[in-house]
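Why predict the complex rather than its parts? Because the way molecules touch one another can change local conformation, and only a joint prediction can capture that. The input here totals 595 residues.
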Amino acid sequence: MSEVKLAATRDAYGKALAQLGKENPNVVVLDADLSASTKTAEFGKLFPDRFFNMGVAEQDMISTAAGLAACGKIAFASTFAVFGSGRAWDQVRLSVAYTRANVKIVVTHAGIVTGEDGASHQANEDIAIMRVIPNMTVVVPSDSVETEKVIRAAAEFHGPMYIRLSRPKTPIINAEDYKFQLGRGVVLRPGKDLTIFSCGIMVATALDAAADLAGKGIEAEVINLHTIKPLDKKLIVDSAKRTGAVVTVEEHSILGGLGGAVAEVLVENCAVPMVRVGLKDVFGESGKPDELLVKYGLTAEEIVKAARSVIKRKS
Amino acid sequence: MSGDEIKKLQEIASKLRQHVIAMTCAAASGHPGGSLSAADIITVLYFHALRHNPKDPGWTERDRFVMSKGHAAPILYSALAEAGYFPAKYLKTLRQIGSSLQGHIDMLSLPGIEMSTGSLGQGLSAANGMALAGRLDKNDYRVYCLLGDGECQEGQVWEAAMTSGHRKLDNLTAIVDHNKYQIDGKIEDIKTLAPFEDKWRSFNWHVIRCDGHSIKALIEAIDNAKKTKGKPTVIIADTIKGKGVSFMEAAPLSFHGSPPTPEQEKQALCELCKIKDIEL
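Output of the joint prediction:
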């Protein structure tokens, strides 16, 4: 196996944003006193007139972004996932989504891999509470390469978008020439025995699990569902029909996120045995990201177990 | 400002008030009390102060008006209709299914609405965003934001007020429709705003207090705000909930979120037909 390269999706965001700033004078950026962590600081340094540090005031930041967007700006608003989704949910719903504002809420420090900061800072519910809002597009990039392409796509797409990024360095799984298409899942590995749908940093783990399963004679199809909304229903249904079993893998609660979204599609179109791998309706805790992933069952081993159990249920 | 011009604006305010009564009665629903208290403010904005063109609602040079107290939708719809954004006959579709005249204002439904509101506290932040965009674009439009006084209990109002003060947004004027009541009672009983002027001042705002039913005082306050450089201005406009209709003024809590009965409607319209308190 070749050496795995690591990079943080938030670093890719900072880089892409600075590049966008050079290309498009309409791009403005807002942050809520976390610009060093969310990586918007680089944009702020290059374009101080178009960078608004709103202080510790996420609700104000989101509605202000909507006001800027109402005057033709492409507004990127960043903070940690727990604040951008939860603290400002009503502002996202009314000021941004209801008005179809051209606001991109790009959050970092999603999920338990936020690590040492503990449960208060680990957003494990954000995909669920963002995807239920009408007009909202929700994207969870799988690595730094995809993140850069997602940020570019976000600037070209007119309307509200929620983009979920992570704090630690995670494996790069996409080639530089990978073409990102909003709303289109990517088959990373074909297989016939089951389908593993994943998003975000867990896609790399799902690929590891599939490699392990192959050694046990099980051919798992691995699909990167980077866009949680609008969901690639056709791809989900086609793959599930072919393989007859599904495992979803996300670094998020098993309630309402990727697993919930896939389950909704399957139950209405082709119900097949399914297992959701994710946080089992619990809060996280302080710890190193790798330790937390093991403790909360977000490992290749757990995915392999889920795959074997779901295959047994195939009729 | 001549006496004739003031009289003309008073007549418009009276007309807008009649629309508020008629449309909320037709809908048997809506918020007439806080619409009537804001009628003179809205009149001065749409028929005197705002640079706008009803034939071109998207004009990039237009002044922006954000009505943060989105429940006062009827008074804004009345002004937009009288200004020529849409025919006044549509006013009676207020709150009906399929109508552009939503219960709380929706910018995607109706031309002339700059921001959707209804969940209190969000409008001033959006107005700040518009003011910042104007500054970035070197566009000299002004931004106005109308807040309810009860609304000022929302924390986000003060987050936004801190932003406007910090960024010295002198192209922004906030107006508080200070009618002293919220749904559940008197503001001073439920959660006082006092010292209200000092609060705004301490957030680095220029504060003007005026009679919110005096056309002349409102015009002077808005002119004063335009001339104020280096800080945003808030006009705390003292108003009366239900202003213009005797039985609504006497029972402000009964008409916060409920319209008059059909019999009361007749009396209200009759009272409003007579223009009172003309300043000369």
